[in-house]
């Protein structure tokens, strides 16, 4: 069986850039901290999911806690650091992170999408019908 190195399977933080003793170069991230960088000098504190954010995956030495949004809300960014209202059919998301009804002459038949013009959509449908059987 091969030898196991200190911190194997864990993410270590760099203590000093060079030296003769590998055990003194790096130390594992402590509980409640993580680092994405294999040669980083510090570990970051794991986030806590609060408010509309609910816990999804535990923090590990290699990755931060992952949160998701409560039902009826959706992540407001790729990292899911905040939640926004999930807009239903007949609504569209706004820049203010809420929902508004589709303006006159538009519709939305999908969840959390922009409203589309009836004339544009109807025009496509008309072309499809004319190409039909």
Question: Characteristics of this structure?
Answer:
alpha+beta; Tumor Necrosis Factor Receptor, subunit A, domain 2; 2 domains; 12 strands; 26% strand; disordered C terminus; Tumor necrosis factor receptor superfamily member 9-like
Architecture overview:
InterPro entries: TNFR/NGFR_Cys_rich_reg. The protein is α+β, with helices and mostly antiparallel strands. It has 2 domains: 1-70, Tumor Necrosis Factor Receptor, subunit A, domain 2; 87-131, no CATH class. 11% of the residues lie in helices and 26% in strands. It has one helix at residues 118-131, and strands spanning 12-14, 26-28, 33-34, 44-45, 53-57, 66-69, 73-75, 83-85, 91-93, 99-101, 106-107, 116-117. Strand 9 (91-93) and strand 10 (99-101) form a beta hairpin. The radius of gyration is 25 Å and the shape is elongated. The relative contact order is 0.10.
The radius of gyration over CA amounts to 25 Å
Name given to the CATH architecture of the largest domain: Ribbon
Q: Count the strands? A: 12
What percentage of the residues does DSSP assign to strands (E)?
25-35%
In angstroms, what separates the terminal alpha carbons? 70 Å
Q: How confident overall, as mean pLDDT?
A: 80
And the CATH topology of the largest domain? Tumor Necrosis Factor Receptor, subunit A, domain 2
TNFR-Cys repeats: 28-67
InterPro entries: TNFR/NGFR_Cys_rich_reg (IPR001368)
Organism: Poecilia reticulata (Guppy)
Disulfide bonds: 46-59, 49-67
